[in-house]
Amino acid sequence: MALAQTYKGDALTLEQGWHMPDRGTVGIAFLIVTESALFTIFVVAYLVYIGKSLNGPMPKDVLDLPIVATICLLSSSITVVFAEHALKKGHLGAFKLWWIATIALGLEFLTATGIEWHKLIYKDHLTIRTNLFGTTYYSLVGLHASHVIVGMVFLLLVMGVTFAGFPIQTQFRRVRFLSWYWHFVDAVWVVVFTVVYVVGR
Amino acid sequence: MASIDYPLERPRPKEGEFSFSETLYRWVATVDHKRLGLMYIVTALLFLVIAGLMASVMRLQLAFPNNHVVGPETFNRLFTMHGTTMVFLVGMPFVAGLSNYLVPLMIGARDMAFPRLNAFGYWIFLFGGLLLYFSYIGGGGLSGHGSAPDVGWFAYAPLTSKAFSRGASTDFWILGILVAGIGSVASALNVIVTTICMRCPGMTLTRMPMFVWVMLIDSWLIIIALPPLTAAQVMLLIDRFLGGNFFNTQAGGSAVLWQHFFWIFGHPEVYILIFPAFAILSEVIPIFSRKPLFGRAAMVGAVVAIGFISLGVWAHHMFAVGMTSWSNTFFAASSMLVGIPTGIKIFNWTATMYGGKLRLDTPMLFCCAFLLQFLVAGLTGIMLAVSPFDWQLHDSYFVVGHFHFTLIGGLVFGLFAGMYYWFPKATGKLLCEKLGRWNFWLFVIGFETTFIPMHFLGILGMPRRIYTYAPDRGWDFWNLVSSLGVIAQAAAIALFIWNVIDSIRSGEKAGDDPWDGWTLEWATSSPPPEYNFEKLPVVRSSRPLWDLKHPHDPDWKFEQ
Lengths: 201, 560
Fold this sequence. Notes:
The complex is a heterodimer. Chain A is mainly α. Helix content of chain A is 76%, strand content 0%. The radius of gyration of chain A is 23 Å and the shape is elongated. By secondary structure, chain B is mainly alpha-helical. Chain B has one domain (35-557): Cytochrome c oxidase-like, subunit I domain (Cytochrome C Oxidase, Chain A), CATH 1.20.210. Helix content of chain B is 65%, strand content 0%. In chain B, α3 (72-106) packs across α7 (255-289), α6 packs parallel to α8 (296-309) and α10 runs antiparallel to α11. The radius of gyration of chain B is 24 Å and the shape is globular. Chains A and B meet through α1, α2 and α6 of A and α5, α6, α7 and α16 of B.
């Protein structure tokens, strides 16, 4: 065909110096962007409805600062980084240890949320239909908790395949993406904590 | 400069060798971006016909005063389903289909970044659409009220609460759109990652075709603007199923908050819908003017500017709800601001044509009509952005005329230009030019006849969404004219469908490059093989095929 032309020299230099960003990295980054847009609306709804409830219970009456749960969740961001570094260096034993620590801290957070909800529902009689506070509180905290659960499922999956003998170090990229997602869930908790337990009280 | 190998004999898939069930399996199980792109576009065309038929029934009902073709309940369902279908099941899959088919070809990639996510996106979109239409059968709900959704495409609270919308019809609206929206976000994420990570050697951002640029910003808008709708719909579900109070005014909730959340999605959405037309025009006009796109950098700047400004204009849909005068002023000003980058785009397309060697084939005809009609739509948009003017004409037929000028006169005309332009690439056959001209002129005449009178009707005081009207209002004549236009539009669409079927069966062979194109999709065969390019191309300018065809005068000598 008449169009067929090649400029071999130039093509080679171009191809040698041509690097594109990693698909997974860009993909997870924009997934986090779109998830942030989702959370923003729930946070805005919470902020708009602070103090608009027509009847009790009010946040200042029933909410306690979840200090331990918060420390656990934020620490799990640190342990997951240690796990990632251990995996990068090929220390599989240390990776397993830090990974289990991350899962344990995440589980502690979820348990604390469960206990808090149990107390709110059965002792304070605050349900999702009681008032605006109940509706926005359970929606926002629940949306965050559901993201923690999704993170836990993947953390457990990685742990399961690792203990089954799968060479997890070959999947370092994916483990790192999971840790980024986990950091995102933690960062969202910082916002939720500020909005619900500091500003909203 | 570029290096693209053109072997004499290319292996082509031989469709005739497969049985029906094998062919079906190859389409259903495909992860090929071209097949998925075509599936998106065919599905969108199907929904376009359905939504068009609904519009025809509505125009028939409104053709005469006190008409009784359909009752008020059916009319409510018709305009709700028409609007919802056109936005979510016609516009959105066209965005996804066009970007799926063309972006990898234009950036010299073999597929999208995540092919399986791509297939997931299509199927979940399709089933979301089917779920919405299942409401005609299943929307009765346990209490036996209603069938299809009848709350309007923006589903304002508190009309959507359990008290006012009994049965399951509103739930079908929520879930169908929510599910289809997941597909749109998946496909948009895929386009972004593909554009950033899969470009062939030499395809820097400054050399990327304008189509890909616009689709990149379009996908950015989708991933930013669709989650707010999903969030608001989840809140509505919580209200309807769990007894939440988000939009329950009796518990202190705010119905206006739904409007804010909806339009935070809804206004970027209209830019999401018009961007594919911008993308198509930016490719078609240069090719048919035989000039490179005028002011490329300004075009990119304008589209990026729209991508950000359009996120801050939503409340101009809400001037009539009684916001503070500061809010009204802010949103009026930001809405006018968005007119500046849009004006730059119109100017640059016109400047591309100026002094060019114009070829008025069907794709170019549709582009010319787009320029005029979209200009009118933009001007009525500026009028409505003035909040006191909006108070007069809010929820009137003037608004209906305005947004049909943007979405039909803009988007659908742009899509026709695109379909006539890329049909040869996708099928290897040219669409019949004579039928194309009939299609174009019938559609222009029908479009103007239907939608220009709506502006007059709005100024004469006719509100939106009424199912009939009394004869003494002075609305009879323009309503009849508007309804008559539908005949020409329907004929145009029917001609187009016939043109497609006939051309696939016995159309003129197109060859690989029928329009003497400049972007990479014309460098491969028509239709392209599954792997797109045997050897990944290398580009050195924004018009790689121009460089190949004119080795003594290539663009890369002049471009930075």
